[in-house]
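so my prof wants the structure for this chain in the tokens format not the other one, which i didnt know existed until like an hour ago. anyway here's the sequence
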Amino acid sequence: MLTRTRADVVRRLLANARFEVLPTARVEEAVATHLRPGRTVTVTASPSKGLEATLALTERLTARGYDVVPHLAARMITGRSELVEIADRLRASGVTTVFVPAGDADPVGSYAGALDLLDDLVAIGSPFAQVGITGYPESHPTIHDDVTVQTMWDKRRHATQIVSNLTFDPRVLTSWVQRVRARGVTTPILVGLPGPVDRTKLLSMATKIGVGESTKFLAKNRGVFARIAAPGGYDPLRLLNRAAGVLGDERMNVTGLHLFTFNQVAETEAWRRAQLARWER
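here's what i got, hopefully its the right format
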């Protein structure tokens, strides 16, 4: 049973959740059907589909009244000229927040990583009030832990929020949050949390290599995938309950959740609402 304090933490995080989707043909209607306008939706960048798919879906969802956060994968952008065009296009659509990962694709231009793009965003006079960067509770499949920690430190001057990547272990998550704060990084953190994903649908999404950072992470980390796919192997509420003691510490400055939906928008939102309803009775 949750203590009242832990329950309050879980409820607060669930109430402040945003939804990550992959830019596929059917996801726009899924969002429109199951999420009310005004909710925050983030759109991943797909090396196989190109950044245009991300930008176009961002524009359409923004027009429907959603607060949309496009992923600007640095390695998919050729350089400052294209960045200016993208920034102008998103500003015209009313986008105020972006998320800047490096991306898993080989660089198509001058940006080898997220920091290069973040520097250029400042140089062009960024129109975005909020800029998110990636944090890695789990080891990155291709980057050494020391490098991910150092690059997050380097990027902190540009970021207004850190979004943690996938983890299914509450101890790994809480230890990472504490290490970030011990290093002196005070940027607000959004905890990346996979929703209650159907195993069959997850397998289908995870085998589509290149559709986004989330599924590429699973494809490269078979042990992690096995954990989420196993019956009874992963419960998002259980993870939150076990991590709530640290996540609720005001010194940790954890402000909400970044829900990886794997385009199971209906199931993710139904789960979130059901958990919130538990404390409203």
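also thought this was worth mentioning. The chain has one domain: 4-278.
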